[in-house]
Amino acid sequence: MTDARPAPSSRRAAGVLVTGASGTIGRAVVDALVEAGEPVVAGMRDPRAWIADGARRASGISAGGASRTSGGAAAGSGFGGSGASGVGGRAGGGRPESSGPGRPLGKPSRAPNQKPLQNPTRKPGTTVGPAATAANGRPGALPAAGHPGQTVASALPAGAQAATVRAFDFADRGTWASALAGVDRVFLVLPPTVGEVGRTLIPFIDTAMESGVRQIVFLSQQGVPLQARSPQHDVERYLKRTRTPYTVLRPNVVLQSLSSTYRDDIRRRREIALPAAAAHVAFVDARDVARVAARVLGESGHLRKSYALSGEQALGYTQVAELLGEVLDRPIRYTPTTDADFEQRLAGLGASPTEIARQASLFRSVRLRALRLPNRSIRRLTGRPATTVRRFIEDHRDSWL
Ligand SMILES: NC(=O)c1ccc[n+]([C@@H]2O[C@H](COP(=O)([O-])OP(=O)(O)OC[C@H]3O[C@@H](n4cnc5c(N)ncnc54)[C@H](OP(=O)(O)O)[C@@H]3O)[C@@H](O)[C@H]2O)c1
């Protein structure tokens, strides 16, 4: 099947649903798409808590304040509609800001290094107001005040549209159609907590295709073709078998784990403790993965293709710790641990058995040296080299201070 989609400029009317938009990679993808001028729907289980949390962090307003915009449906009838899905607030005075329930969001509100809220309570039908964003890490991205309902157009590049947040939960089919309204492409994330793809991602793929979606970009991970029992493998196989117009991205280990999952260890104990032995990893920056996603969603030629996304250098965690130490000007050490210690520690942090199993499997791949090979796919696909580990650490220095 050929990729006969029109050129990007002629198909701006429909949008991209990003699932897992509050997560590390999904959030970066929302940013990259907004930057590219794409209409974006940010799908997440609990938009209201996310907005409230972001608004509180960004400008000191309370979660209760943000919730004053509630009352409408979480999803509306498409872009620019009167429901929650209207996209508005173009920077530079484009489309006027929408009014009423379900105004658009500026951009995701959590800082790039912060993990999503733990175990948020989803409130179906939550309408969200916009909040400030620091998701792209640009200075000055935060608004002066975080009024509920305000679109933070000042945070957006000229011509960019705000993203719209809608409730979306793989475990709640009632959210699927409304999240997909007005959408012609999907960035599909398998959450670390979701194990049963036969009851979640796979039927969702069918629903998306029935609703007129023309491309699904699936976030897989490197090494998956060799992991026949992984859920990512099941999804990849399904996409291929059903001749879905897919693009598969298989990133290596993302560097953001240093500034999110392992941040407190680095900050408080000056240590990275992982079951990685002495293996090297060709780490990748989620921002680079996101730029690739925006590229493959925004231009033709990427259907039925799979891309392994690695950085251009491979480092061991000892070297990563040294670089952290240099940039932070304090000693940081890497301590290799056993699987059992690591798993116990994750459990202590509240990780689910599914998450623990995924992490354990990831570090088995690391120890088998399956993730050590650098490549230039990010440079090839985006025209810019992959972010180096040092650069990533410099950009996120404040995370560990
Ligand atoms: N992290 C890495 O190093 C890495 C590397 C390569 C590939 N990957 C791939 O990336 C995927 C994970 O992405 P991530 O690292 O961005 O994870 P993450 O930061 O943990 O984010 C997971 C996202 O999934 C959402 N989510 C959880 N349960 C959900 C549900 N039932 N329905 C809908 N959304 C749900 C969460 O949002 P809410 O809780 O707010 O709803 C959150 O936004 C994995 O499949 C992994 O294979 C990760």
From TrEMBL:
Residue stretches of biased makeup (Low complexity): 1-14, 96-106, 124-135
Biased composition range(s): Gly residues: 84-95
Sequence segments annotated as region (Disordered): 1-20, 84-149
Coiled-coil stretches noted in the UniProt entry, renumbered to this chain: none
Residue ranges of domain NmrA-like in the record: 160-346
Biased composition (Polar residues): 111-121
Any Pfam family the entry gives: NmrA
InterPro entries noted in UniProt: Ergot_Alk_Oxidoreductase, NAD(P)-bd_dom_sf, NmrA-like
Top-level division of the source organism's lineage: Bacteria
Organism: Cryobacterium arcticum
Name the record gives this protein: NmrA-like domain-containing protein
